[in-house]
Design a protein that fits this description.
Elements: E1 19-24, H1 39-47, E2 53-54, E3 59-60, E4 66-68, H2 80-95, E5 100-105, H3 111-118, E6 129-133, H4 153-158, E7 163-169, H5 174-183, E8 186-190, H6 191-196, H7 198-210, E9 213-220, H8 242-255, E10 259-267, H9 277-294
Parallel strand pairs: 1-4, 1-5, 5-10, 6-7, 6-9, 7-8, 9-10
Antiparallel strand pairs: 2-3
Helix pairs in contact: 1-9, 2-3, 7-8, 8-9
Bound molecules: manganese (II) ion.
Manganese (II) ion is lined by residues 108, 134, 136, 138, 150, 220.
Length: 300
C-alpha cells in the first residue's frame, strides 16, 4: 500500500492499536454519483494535513495508536452479498481485538455488515442503539431490486431489533415513514426541526446524553450541508452545519460516559477533482470522533 499512514502517524500492529481503521472502497449500489470507491485513499491523504491537537477537548491525537487494515477491495463483478460477507468477516476479525473499529467508505450499504460484525449475534440487535447522521432515512425494504442498497441500510438494522436515532434527515419516502413509525424503534430528528425548533434540538441533546449500553455510530456525510460534501452521491440541501453536528457527537461520545461505543463508520465520501473539501471533511470528522471518544470528559 502506497497510502500515507492515517494522520501521518506510525502504523502499529492491529492487536496493539487503540484505533483500527478499515478502508472500504465500495460503490456497489450507489444511485447517482460515482466515486465512493476512491474515497478511502483520498481520506488517508487528507488526514495527513489534520492537526493532531484537538483544542476543543484538549486532546493530542498522537497520544493514541492507529492501525490501518488492508482495504477490502471489491472483485470484478462481485455481487453485493459476496462483498458484504467479506466486510462482515474482516469486521469480525478486527472487532475481536481491543481497538475501536472505524470503517471509512464507501457507500452506506456497508453499515449492516459492519454492525453485524460488532455484536455477538447479528440477527438480534435488540440491545443496540444505532445513531445515524444522514440526509436520507435509508429505510426502504429494497431499492433497485437489492436489499443491500444504501437506501435500505437502516431498515436492515431496525428489522433485527436495533433502536435507532436518526439525525439530519431531510429526504424520506412515505413507505419509510410508515415503517419507522410501526417499528416503534426509531426516533427521527429532521434537519429542518433541528435548524428551526430549539426544543427539538434540546430533546436530541437530552437523548444523546442519556443513552446507555452498546452504541454504533454511522455517519453518512450527506447529513452535512452540501458545502461540506459537494460531491456526495445523493446531495440534499438544508443539511447540518459542522458545529451543530459536532455538538451532537460531543454529547454522545464525550459527555455521555454510559455508552459502550462498538464501532463507527463514515461513508458516502466522494473525492472530486480540483477540491479537497470532500475528503478533508471526512478525515476531520474521523479525527473529531476519536477526540471526543478518547479524551477525558473533564477536559475541554
Ligand atoms: Mn445514507
Amino acid at each position: 500500500m502506497t497510502w500515507p499512514t492515517f494522520l501521518d502517524l506510525p502504523d502499529v500492529p492491529a492487536t496493539k492499536a487503540d484505533v483500527i481503521l478499515l478502508p472500504l472502497p465500495y460503490e456497489g449500489t450507489v444511485s447517482f454519483g460515482r466515486g465512493t470507491s476512491r474515497a478511502p485513499e483520498a481520506v488517508w491523504r487528507a488526514s495527513t494535513q489534520i492537526e493532531l491537537w484537538d483544542d476543543e477537548v484538549q486532546f493530542d491525537l498522537g497520544s493514541i495508536t492507529y492501525h490501518t487494515t488492508p482495504a477490502v477491495v471489491p472483485r470484478l463483478d462481485e455481487s453485493p452479498a459476496s462483498y458484504l460477507e467479506r466486510v462482515f468477516e474482516q469486521g469480525q476479525l478486527y472487532q475481536a481485538m481491543s481497538g475501536l473499529v472505524v470503517a471509512v467508505g464507501g457507500e452506506h450499504g456497508l453499515t449492516p455488515a459492519l454492525v453485524g460484525a460488532a455484536v455477538d449475534d447479528p440477527n438480534d440487535l435488540s440491545r443496540l442503539t444505532v445513531v445515524q447522521l444522514d440526509a436520507h432515512a435509508d429505510l426502504r425494504d429494497t431499492y433497485d431490486g437489492s436489499p443491500h442498497n444504501h437506501a435500505c441500510a437502516m431498515r436492515r438494522l431496525i428489522e433485527r431489533g436495533a433502536r435507532a436515532v436518526a439525525i439530519g434527515i431531510r429526504s424520506v419516502e412515505r413507505e419509510e415513514c410508515v415503517f419507522g413509525q410501526q417499528s416503534g424503534l426509531l426516533q427521527t430528528f429532521t434537519a429542518r426541526q433541528l435548524a428551526t425548533e430549539r426544543a427539538v434540538e434540546a430533546q436530541l441533546l437530552d437523548l444523546l446524553g442519556s443513552l446507555a449500553g452498546p452504541v454504533y455510530l454511522t455517519v453518512d456525510v450527506d447529513a452535512f450541508e452540501v458545502s461540506l460534501c459537494p460531491a456526495t452521491g445523493t446531495p440534499q440541501p438544508g443539511g447540518l452545519g459542522w458545529w451543530a453536528a459536532m455538538k451532537y457527537l460531543r454529547r454522545l461520545l464525550h459527555e455521555n460516559r454510559q455508552i459502550e461505543l462498538l464501532g463507527c463508520d463514515v461513508v458516502e465520501t466522494v473525492p472530486q477533482p480540483g477540491t479537497l473539501v470532500n475528503e478533508t471533511v471526512a478525515a476531520a470528522l474521523v479525527a473529531k470522533i476519536l477526540g471526543y471518544h478518547f479524551a477525558q470528559p473533564n477536559r475541554g
